Every structure is written in C-alpha cells, then in structure tokens.
C-alpha cells in the first residue's frame, strides 16, 4: 500500500497530480496552520496570452496565527467572481476550452466555502477527469487524531494506521531535511521523494510549473500520459 500526505492545493501543478496517481491513498493534511502568507493552498499560477505566469488567488478569512487549513473560509468577493472571467480571457482560444471550462464552472459552484472542502472537491474532480478513476482520499482532520506530534512522527503514525509500506512525498521537504528516511525505514516504511522531470506539452509559449489547468486546456486528451511521462521517484 502506497501513501501520500500533503496539503490540499488549489489547481496545483503536474507533479502534484503525479503523486496522486502514484499512491493508493492520499491523506489531505488540513489540520496544520495556514500561516500569514498566500500559499499553494489558496494560490496558483495560470499562463496569460504572453506566456507569463500570473497568480490566481482565493481570498480567505482566517486568523494568521491560529487558523488551521480546515478552519479557513473562502471569501466569495469580487476577486472570487473574477476568476472565471480571467480564466476565460486567457484560455478562450485553447483547443479544449469548452470541456475544461465547464468543469471549472462546476468547481466554482461548489456550495461549501470551507477552503479544505473546496480544494478537496477540486482535486477529486480534476483527478477523475484526467485518469478516469476515483482517488481514495482521507482527511487528516476527520480520519485521524488531532496532530499532536511533529510532522514526521505524525506521518509515520498515519502510515502505520493504514498499513502502508511505501511513503511518497515531494522533494522540498526531503532536501530541507524536514524528514529522515531512516525513521520511516525503522517502521518498515519505504521512503520515496519526487524528482519530477517536467514534460513539455503542445502549446505555444509553454512554461513549466503552471497550474494543471494549462495542460488541460491545451492537451486534455493526452494529459494522463503527459503527467506520467515526467514520473521520477527516488528511494531514499
């Protein structure tokens, strides 16, 4: 059994969806502090007509010192309502505009304003569109005890409770020494970190690390194969 644990990102990049496709269970880490700066949880980058990355940001109501991700509330203000118009402006000439835009409109119609719930629904819908299968998701805030440990101990505890033998994560945490693979190995859990080889897809003014939306608008039929083509996991 393979597991990945990460925060519920907003319209994330290709490597994020490669992790989702790699694991058997994805645990949404929504019981950690949001903090005081915009993060990938409420902001990501789409590409304008000049090939420049531009931010798309959800305004949220939260206490910067105490609010957990699952306590953050999306503010449906003018900024929120402008998202659809901005996306339409940048992508209306894309070959798969109608199909992808229909899904985005459905996502923005989601009734909950809870940031964790909104993003989790977003993740499920986009994953199904790409891979034509359901993703098995568990919420840290609901399915596991309150976070009482440091991240590493907590992730090991979750992995053990789910009988997972392989743990997959992004490379930043590993390279910044937030985790020690030896501690996972001691608990009979193999540790893998991602070294994603970002693929290029069929688009003029292609740029790396844009939101998954950019790929879907321009090469939706091949999105699954394109995402998987960059797969590169390293066992630590």
Describe this protein's structure:
The protein is built from ten helices and ten strands. It has helices at 14-22, 78-91, 97-108, 115-131, 140-143, 151-161, 171-175, 181-186, 212-219, 223-229, and strands at 2-6, 25-28, 43-47, 53-57, 60-61, 73-74, 137-139, 166-169, 190-194, 233-235. The strands form three sheets. A six-stranded mixed sheet has the order 7-2-1-8-9-10. A two-stranded antiparallel ribbon has the order 3-4. The two termini are 18 Å apart. The model has no long low-confidence stretch (mean pLDDT 94).
Describe the structure concisely for a colleague.
By secondary structure, this protein is of the alpha/beta class. The protein is built from ten helices and ten strands.
Q: Share of helix among residues?
A: 25-40%
Oligomer: single chain
Strand order of the largest sheet: 7-2-1-8-9-10
Low-confidence stretches: none
- SS-based class: alpha/beta
Number of strands: 10
User: Tell me, what's the shape?
Assistant: globular
Count the domains.
1
Radius of gyration: 18 Å
Main sheet: strands, sense, barrel: 6 strands, mixed
Order of helices and strands: EHEEEEEHHHEHHEHHEHHE
Cα-to-Cα separation, first versus last residue: 18 Å
Average of per-residue pLDDT values = 94
How large is the count of helical segments?
10
Query: What fraction of residues sit in β-strands?
Result: 15-25%
